[in-house]
Amino acid sequence: MTTLQNKIVVVVGGSSGIGFGVALAALQSFASVVIIASSNADRVAGAVARLQAHKLPGEVRGEVLDAKDAAAVKKFALSLGAIDHVAWTSGDVQKLDSTDAFSVRFWGPLILAQNATFRPGGSLTFTSGILDVKPRAGRVVSAGVCSALEGLAKGLAVDLAPIRVNVIGPGAIETEIWDKVPIAVQDQFRKELEKNQLIKRIGEPQEIAEAYLFLMKCGYITGERINVDGGVALA
Ligand SMILES: NC(=O)c1ccc[n+]([C@@H]2O[C@H](COP(=O)([O-])OP(=O)(O)OC[C@H]3O[C@@H](n4cnc5c(N)ncnc54)[C@H](OP(=O)(O)O)[C@@H]3O)[C@@H](O)[C@H]2O)c1
Is the CB of 227 under 6 A from ligand 1? Predict the structure, then answer.
């Protein structure tokens, strides 16, 4: 099996949820350095400590980055030096269906892609969702972001080749994102999501992290989208 030995992996959004799962999986796959970045300094520090507590061989670093700030994203990308893989999982739940959603989930990854330096074999993986596959009422901007990210990955795959660019579409994944949904609504929402997919449960961050690791390790896949969604489109 391919590992991430001697690889530098950057996870923007690594302070919680899917991104934290990716950062941990990269360390478990022997990445030599894992850099996590997100906007809240306390959450970054907490996540670095939780990752280090696993006592895996790789080095863990944390950076504070507000992905809404285009200049900061550019500066961050340039400051990284040569890296191998980037997973972008940052998303701001407060902004889910505002036009701001594009700042953190679309423009941020694009600016990073245009300014980062990748070593041969490098890759970028974006995070969309399944709202463009199965739209929900009132979530029109999020549906647009999901489609846009697929186009962005394809366009950048051509522009940055042979650096590989792909996108993952998560279904319902058990992360801190749920903490922001009011408890009263949460139960009903969860039940509905579980019912409307083939695999009748919410997914785990470590399950979807496998898909990010696959896209980092498999050197022959680019411009693709993988949905990790319990079969939502077929239910
Ligand atoms: N979980 C799901 O069911 C699901 C389903 C479909 C799509 N998604 C998408 O997958 C992505 C990850 O979701 P998740 O479930 O892992 O959510 P999460 O646990 O809330 O993680 C979101 C991450 O984004 C970071 N973030 C938020 N605002 C930011 C900003 N302005 N700049 C930089 N980082 C920022 C957060 O860190 P800070 O607070 O420290 O900034 C955190 O690390 C999101 O785009 C989400 O929309 C999730």
Answer: no
Tell me which residue has its CA closest to atom 27 in ligand 1. 92
Q: Is 79 a catalytic residue?
A: no
* 41-85 confidence digits (pLDDT tens): 999 999 999 999 999 999 999 999 999 999 999 999 999 999 999
**Tens of pLDDT, residues 149-206:** 999 999 999 999 999 999 999 999 999 998 888 888 989 989 999 999 999 999 999 9
Q: How far is the CA of 67 from the centre of ligand 1 (A)?
A: 11
* Cα dist from 126 to 58, 165, 198, whole Å: 23, 8, 24
Taking Cα atoms as reference points, which of 86, 89, 35 lies closest to residue 64? 35
Residue 9, ligand 1, Cβ within 6 A? no
Instruction: Decide: 229 in ligand 1 pocket, CB within 6 A.
Output: no
- The verdict on domain 8-234 having CATH code 3.90.1170.20 is no
